[in-house]
């Protein structure tokens, strides 16, 4: 099978007759899958983390005494996992966007993107 002249041979590897995936794109997909998986694991464990009453580890909050932009995210995700949307939004308004972002990262890594027919 012949490689297309516009894409160098070191950039692509043959997947199936006539289809190629860029190697660089594959590495990016693996990173997206890892990040999405870690975020979804954090979201799944957030109810346990929110009830653990752990000490404050936020450096901004320790230095200034004020909440940083991410403070309340664990409680927001915990409430969202338990189905309490109102408490989730009151703890942090962007908790739902983190869930959507994590699902998008994982889906974009696992689902095929462009497969160019040659």
Descriptive report:
- The chain contains five helices and two strands; from the N terminus they run ββααααα.
- By secondary structure, it is mainly alpha-helical.
- It has a domain at about 30-110.
- A two-stranded antiparallel sheet has the order 1-2.
- A hairpin with a 2-residue loop joins strand 1 (about 10-15) and strand 2 (about 20).
- The longest helix is centred in the first third of the chain and has 29 residues, at about 25-50.
- The model has no long low-confidence stretch (mean pLDDT about 75).
Estimated radius of gyration: 21 Å
Number of helices, counting only DSSP H or I runs of 4 residues or more: 5
Distance between the termini: 10 Å
**Strand order in the largest sheet:** 1-2
- Major beta sheet summary: 2 strands, antiparallel
Class from secondary-structure proportions: mainly alpha
**Unreliable residue stretches:** none
Mean pLDDT: 75
Helix percent band: 55-70%
Shape: globular
Q: What percentage of the residues does DSSP assign to strands (E)? A: 5-15%
What sequence of helices (H) and strands (E) makes up the elements?
EEHHHHH
What's the total number of strands? 2
List the defining traits of the structure above:
single chain, 118 residues, mainly alpha, two-stranded antiparallel sheet, globular
